[in-house]
């Protein structure tokens, strides 16, 4: 495939990430909070993974699912933030075509994998609270293995055509992407081909995968709430509501940020173009920073495991 810059006769071999086109002057200031969030996300998820790996008492299905979520978060952060910070600090805006489409695939597939992992974890909590006597027979190590294979296949295969469709377009409107990352819409806008099918495919696949996850998550927590309200032991009810409530809020935040991002892109004529760009970056950063705190540190067993790990150091 041969791509061209603004001069249609001159072939080029890379894209140029413009990042925030209207606010170039304050990009260095924005890099500070983004760097801190990046370090928090990487440190918290790495600590959670090491703790679960070293603490034998945490070798249980629920914590394996937490490990999977942390791995997805780490990959998402490493896919997006280092390049964004390189643009802010060193003005390294160039990105090769293959790297751009690889980034596009990882972002699309791993975000939906994370959503699906939330759904599986909600099911885990549903079985634990609504069917506690059957929990150990349903949520087993084999269940986690099958769930991991399902998560990867169910989200990796349908999202794979998105970067493939984008890579097969003819690019004749320049190679400057008005974004910090290679999103499908930002890249395909540079094409002189009809991108209707490209946009429609991403829209249908995205809402099918994420929408079905959200519906199943809401159903799981609805059944959990119904069961919890029947519990006569006040302490048990408060503990269940506290744990599941924090999980549901985090999932709702993940879905809400995504919905806001979609709305701002649809209403881009009324909203400054830099807003959806910033939201896109934050959506790949804030959930990975919060997930290990809400799911991990608030869990008594993991908190004790982290304390043991710190004593070893």
UniProtKB/TrEMBL annotation:
Stored PROSITE patterns: G_PROTEIN_RECEP_F1_2
Domain of life: Eukaryota
Pfam families reported for this sequence: 7tm_4
Gene3D superfamilies in alphabetical order: Rhodopsin 7-helix transmembrane proteins
Domain spans labelled G-protein coupled receptors family 1 profile: 44-295
Membrane topology: Multi-pass membrane protein
One of the record's GO molecular function terms: G protein-coupled receptor activity
Membrane spanning stretches: 30-51, 63-89, 95-123, 200-224, 245-267
Cellular compartments annotated: Membrane
Keywords of the record: G-protein coupled receptor, Membrane, Olfaction, Receptor, Sensory transduction, Transducer, Transmembrane, Transmembrane helix
Main location: membrane
Protein name: Olfactory receptor 56A5
């Amino acid at each position: 495939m041969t791509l061209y810059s603004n001069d249609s006769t001159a072939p080029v071999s890379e894209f140029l990430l413009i990042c925030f086109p209207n606010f170039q002057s304050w990009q260095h200031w924005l890099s500070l909070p983004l760097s801190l969030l990046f370090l928090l996300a990487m440190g918290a998820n790495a600590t959670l993974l090491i703790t679960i790996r070293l603490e034998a008492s945490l070798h249980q299905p629920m914590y394996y699912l937490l490990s999977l979520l942390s791995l997805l978060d780490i990959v998402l952060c490493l896919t997006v933030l280092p390049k964004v910070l390189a643009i802010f600090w060193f003005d390294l805006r160039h990105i090769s075509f293959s790297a751009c489409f690889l980034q596009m695939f990882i972002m699309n597939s791993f975000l939906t994998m994370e959503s699906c992992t939330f759904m599986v974890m909600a099911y885990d909590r549903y079985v634990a609270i609504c069917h506690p006597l059957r929990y150990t027979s349903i949520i087993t190590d084999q269940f986690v293995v099958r769930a991991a294979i399902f998560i990867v296949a169910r989200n990796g295969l349908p999202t794979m055509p998105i970067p493939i469709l984008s890579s097969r377009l003819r690019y004749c409107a320049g190679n400057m992407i008005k974004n910090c990352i290679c999103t499908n819409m930002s890249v395909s806008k540079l094409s002189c081909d009809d991108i209707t099918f490209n946009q429609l495919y991403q829209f249908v696949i995205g809402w099918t995968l994420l929408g079905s996850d959200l519906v199943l998550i809401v159903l799981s927590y609805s059944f959990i709430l119904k069961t919890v309200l029947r519990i006569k032991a006040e302490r048990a009810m408060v503990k269940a509501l506290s744990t599941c409530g924090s999980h549901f809020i985090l999932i709702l935040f993940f879905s809400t940020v995504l919905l806001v991002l979609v709305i701002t892109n649809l209403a881009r004529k009324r909203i400054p173009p830099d807003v959806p760009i910033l939201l896109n970056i934050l959506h790949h950063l804030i959930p990975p920073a919060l997930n290990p705190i809400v799911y991990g540190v608030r869990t008594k067993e993991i908190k004790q495991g982290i304390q043991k790990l710190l004593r070893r150091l």
